[in-house]
Amino acid sequence: MKKIRWGILSTGRIANQFAADFCAVRGASVHAVAGRQLAAAEQFAHRHQIPNAYQGYEALFSDPNIHAIYIGSPHSLHFEHAKRALEAGKAVLCEKPLTINFDECSRLQKIAADNNAYLMEAMWTYFLPAIKKALAWVADGRIGKIKHIKADFGYPQRPYDASRREYDKSLAGGCLLEMGVYPVAIAWLFLRQDPESIQVSSRLAPNGVEDDLSWIAKYRDCTATLGTSFRCKLQNWAYIIGDEGYIAIPDFWRARECSFYVLDERVERFIDNRQTQGLCFEAQAVTDDLLQKKTSPSQVTAEDSLAFARHMDWIRAQF
Q: Which residues are catalytic?
């Protein structure tokens, strides 16, 4: 296989960003896009110079020319769409959260294994150069032993509307799955362990979905203070704090830079100067895995996705 041909499922905002970034992916092309409405798919295809546009998703699953499918549909549809794609023998890159709970995540991982099919959650943050640099600083012992992680991600989602996707109960609305997955994922990335306990402070929107969350996760030798919100703009930085220094990552979920500090002095700063949003890095990683005939991802593994889902279930159980 010399080139991976992709299909895009969805014509929404994140799918547009993914398609726009694809110009930076080597060894791959986008063969088709599918939407609920043909007109939307055709407009998407024209905008991104994609040769084929389909109404409905079955044509995407059954297209023999497609090797991999990117899924950008609402959270509540991820399981069914990924299941159909995997059973059709396609590799799947599915937007975060991979599923709406741990049970669905476990079932989906089994479906991938049973079909010898590739499945990766699109936690694009893990592939960003600034995040990789921060991991390298930690691995090199620059900050010593991690003692605290602080991270939050929130943007106001106004006006409140129970039928809006972010709040819609039928679409698994709420700030935990929409934005809180990022603080959950960054804590897991640097600690790779389950917390011993989690304390949650929550506030709910009028329809009962959570719209503001803060939680403290206590680990064996570390504490993570995390949060997410639809009510207000949070700082959206991450801090990885050790006993010999700390790392600050502005807008960590889409990080373009990070800085290493000892006490109050910034010792080193990294800026990636990329020309894309950064979604190309995850697409490149999947493409490279498939060209190497791997049937499971090298990064954002099943273990990672199961951990995200497990931790979010534990948080959800407290509100």
A: 96
